[in-house]
């Protein structure tokens, strides 16, 4: 595994920010890391990158244990924090040359030129960073995170504050740079995660509450929930639907019933049987495809 998180726990005073968190990420995976504010996302990212110590547990990157004392491991990690720290009085190419110097890279000018081309900074490279738009500042942040060609890339809210056009531009940059790397991307924007990630990890109150491929998450398999849309030819009472084994919620919306299961069994045969017993025609009986946002609410707020 490229990144392994093993039973990580972190306390701030009496508050447990992370509670025995474990997962692994393979090379070539672009993973979305989701959670409400205060769930522990940024804390875990700082522990992975070695900027913050864990109280217990281990993080392994490229087969090597990380931690604040292991400065050498940082050559394998590129990190873009949520609040992108840049020296705004420097010119773009000047800032990237200095960053390359921190890693003692050979052919600094060549590497800077490659990063400028990769992140689309060609027209901005001779401007001071303070003169750049938010979108271009994020590109500079991505360039500095990538300049030493790390196999692992940690991006904490890389598209915060961007307009729709800038969002799509940065998404495309992330897609381009993710090839051949392990990328962990934290975001509050569900559409962004669906657009660029193949897998999602959701954290809530310091614990992992969902982890799986995007399609698997949206199917309800992760949170063990099935939502069925049913329309009957006559009147059906809510109590009748809630009496079906496995049904935990039934809501009438206009002319349709939205019926949710506990995920243990497919409730559609039982709904059909209810209709037959009551001499009703089922005009509609279909499984509702959930989106990432609905699953996120389900596993972080409950019903």
Q: How large is the share of residues in beta strands?
A: 25-35%
How confident is the prediction overall: mean pLDDT?
88
Label the overall shape.
elongated
Share of helical residues: 25-40%
> What is the H/E string?
EEEHEEEHHHEHEHEEHEHEEHEH
Q: Report how far the terminal alpha carbons are from each other.
A: 35 Å
Q: Into how many domains do the coordinates divide? A: 2
CATH class descriptor of the largest domain: Alpha Beta
Low-confidence stretches: none
Query: What is the third-level CATH name, the topology of the largest domain?
Result: Rossmann fold
CATH architecture of the largest domain: 3-Layer(aba) Sandwich
Reading side by side through the largest sheet, how are the strands ordered?
A: 6-7-8-3-9-10
Helix-strand category = alpha/beta
CATH superfamily of the largest domain: P-loop containing nucleotide triphosphate hydrolases
Write down the Rg.
Answer: 24 Å
Largest sheet: 6 strands, mixed
Number of strands: 14
- Number of continuous helical runs: 10
């Amino acid at each position: 595994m490229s990144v392994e998180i093993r039973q990580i726990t972190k306390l701030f005073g009496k508050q447990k920010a992370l509670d025995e968190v474990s997962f692994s990420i393979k090379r070539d995976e672009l993973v979305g890391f989701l959670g409400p504010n205060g769930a522990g996302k940024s804390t875990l990212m700082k522990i992975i990158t070695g900027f913050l110590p864990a109280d217990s547990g281990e993080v392994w990157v490229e087969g090597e244990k990380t931690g604040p004392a292991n400065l050498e491991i940082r050559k394998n990690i590129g990190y873009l924090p949520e609040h992108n720290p840049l020296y705004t009085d420097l010119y773009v190419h000047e800032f990237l040359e200095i960053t390359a110097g921190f890693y003692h890279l050979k052919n600094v000018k060549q590497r800077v030129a490659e990063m400028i081309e990769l992140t689309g900074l060609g027209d901005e490279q001779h401007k001071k960073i303070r003169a750049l738009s938010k979108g271009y500042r994020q590109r500079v942040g991505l360039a500095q995170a990538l300049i030493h060609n790390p196999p692992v890339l940690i991006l904490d809210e890389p598209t915060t504050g961007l307009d729709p056009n800038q969002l799509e531009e940065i998404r495309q940059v992330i897609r381009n740079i993710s090839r051949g790397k392990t990328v962990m991307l934290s975001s509050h924007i569900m559409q962004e995660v669906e657009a660029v990630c193949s897998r999602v990890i959701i954290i809530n109150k310091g614990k992992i509450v969902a982890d799986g491929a995007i399609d698997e998450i949206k199917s309800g398999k992760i949170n063990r929930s099935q939502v069925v849309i049913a329309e009957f030819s006559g009147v059906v009472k809510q109590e009748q639907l809630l009496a079906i084994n496995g049904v935990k919620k039934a809501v009438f919306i206009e002319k349709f019933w939205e019926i949710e299961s506990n995920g243990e069994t497919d409730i559609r045969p039982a709904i059909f049987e209810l209709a037959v017993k009551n001499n009703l025609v089922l005009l509609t009986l279909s499984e509702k495809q959930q989106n990432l946002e609905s699953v996120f609410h389900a596993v972080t707020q409950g019903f």
